[in-house]
Write a structure and sequence with these properties.
Elements lengths: L4 E7 L3 E3 L3 E9 L2 E4 L2 E9 L2 E15 L2 E15 L2 E15 L2 E7 L3 E6 L2 E4 L8 E7 L2 E5 L5 E8 L2 E3 L5 E9 L4 E8 L5 E8 L2 E5 L1
Parallel strand pairs: 1-3, 2-4, 3-5, 4-6, 5-6, 6-7, 7-8, 8-9, 8-10, 9-11, 10-12, 11-13, 12-18, 13-19, 14-18, 15-19
Antiparallel strand pairs: 14-17, 16-17
């Protein structure tokens, strides 16, 4: 039961939201936000902390912030120099730079751009999830147990680590001078899901 609307701008202060809100628009500089459920939220943080329970639709812009979220159905994130940990996300969209991002469960599609990020997903629970990542010098780890999928990566000077359980592995050098390589592989049976990674440098590790 979420009711009410909040719109606030706070500098050098903390915000504690003790009740569930339907709509929240928060701008916070140098402070902490603690909240329960914020159904539809737009949160802009700089140098602070965010701890919250659940959200249906969250748009997050953050810089130098520590973020903990339990469950978000749809997350749009623009992050710089943050530490973000989320228990479960439905769909995930946005951009990370110099950020550490840890997601326990991904339950939907993902379309992310990242640069010099540390990005980890521990469970992919939707068998038909489409995962797309555009990256530069990122360290990406995806746990793909119970996620049959088609894998494709086009990377310049990047490293891809696939477990032995992957099949139909094909590696093709597209441009030797630029060390541009395309890797294709499949994992599991009845592959409804997909993982597509593009970019340069970086390390991509898939674990089963």
């Amino acid at each position: 039961n979420c009711t009410g609307t909040l719109k606030t701008l706070i500098e050098h202060g903390d915000l504690w939201i003790g009740e569930n809100l339907n709509k929240a628009d928060i701008v916070l500089r140098y402070g902490k936000v603690r909240a329960k459920d914020l159904n539809y939220a737009d949160i802009d943080l700089k140098i602070g902390e965010l701890n919250m329970e659940n959200s249906k639709n969250l748009r997050l812009r953050s810089d130098g912030t520590e973020i903990h979220i339990n469950l978000v159905n749809s997350l749009e994130v623009y992050s710089n120099k943050d530490h973000i940990s989320i228990n479960e996300a439905g769909s995930l969209f946005g951009n990370l730079e110099f950020t550490t991002f840890k997601l326990e469960r991904l339950a939907g599609d993902m379309d992310m751009k990242m640069k010099i990020a540390d990005f980890q997903v521990y469970n992919i629970t939707n068998p038909s999830a489409a995962i797309a990542i555009q990256q530069e010098s990122a360290d990406i780890t995806l746990a793909i147990t119970h996620f049959p999928h088609r894998f494709t990566a086009t990377l310049e000077q990047g490293v891809v680590r696939l477990p032995k359980s992957f099949e139909n592995v094909n590696s093709e050098m597209l441009d030797k001078g630029r060390r541009l390589r395309k890797i294709e592989a499949t994992y599991g049976k009845e592959r409804k899901g997909s993982i597509s990674i593009q970019g340069e440098k970086g390390i991509v590790t898939l674990n089963d």
